[in-house]
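Re: the multi-chain job from yesterday

Posting the exact lines I submitted so nobody has to dig through the queue logs.
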Amino acid sequence: MKEDYIWDKTGRDPDVERLEELLSVLRFKDHKEAAAHVIEFPSKTKRNLQPWIFAMAACVALAAAALAAWNLSMNAGDPPPVQMAVNIDEDGSSESAISNIDRSEASISKVSIPSPQRAVALKKRSEPLKRKYAAVSRKRQERSKLPALTEEEKYAYGQLMLALSITSSKWQVVQESINGVEEVSTNER
Amino acid sequence: MRNITRKLIGLSFGAALLAFCSVAVISVSAQDARIQFDLLKGMETTARDIVEVDLDGKLLDLAKRVTVKVKNDDARKIGEAISGLKGIYVRVYRFENENEYNVAAVDQLRAQLNAPGWERLANVRSKRNNQKVDVFTMFAGDVISGVAVIISESKSVAVINVIGPIDIETLVELSGRFNIPKIDVEHDKTPKRGTD
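And the result, structure tokens for all chains:
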């Protein structure tokens, strides 16, 4: 018996043949068949997509939170100009006050809707400014009622008002001086 | 008939002459109420603040017309208060330091008002800020034809000369309203001392 069967399959070796037969089920037959036994793992691209999605979602969430915080901080300070502009509009006062407002801020502030308590607080804060702008508006209306004056008329009227104001002021000084002297003389008596 | 005509002509001529004389007297007295401010010219160089207003003639008429144009109660009151005004002259000088102006010039100005026609209405002398207040008036019949106010203190001199009647009380009442600002150019803010 040749001993070469195990090396180059020459001759016969029943023990080896029996083992071959037993292990034949595990024999390599075909690539396709072998591939069927391969465990398939998810591809790398699919596996790495999920962290990116999470990261992007986190970024969006952070950006939204930052925007909300900035908006809140804007509302937390003095009443925004838009609030004033709205109030002025309600009063029907001048438009020039509105023109001073930064439009970019206005567009952002207009979006925010304050809570009822906050709205009341804002209204209270804006009251003095409302009154101030209402007074300015009244003065403008009064001025608009004035007739159109020439430069000479304006000058003459200005001079007259200056002279009259000084005269009335000095007359008060005279009165106070006389009253002061009278008080002293009555005290001496 | 001729005698009656002559008498009528004579009477009308006499009446016209009388009217002309009375108008002339009033205008002359109004002109006399004007103070000569030339004495104060030296103060312009040393004063820190100066206010000078000369308002009369056409400029004053123009200003009066504006008070009529403006449809406002206060303007109407001002217009009434100054309806007889013929001129208003104001000089206010304020100085940085005490006694920086020529006191003799102010005294000479006061001396002008010792002339006949002027009557002293008030004369106040106070040691506080060396204040001297003089008010003079001039009358043409029963009507005031001129007012002069001189107020001198250690740091300021104010002279106001009004020609023609003016309702100052109304102006004082209206001060602070209708563009008559409540200004006090040189009113002293130091507290009053009771024993001046």
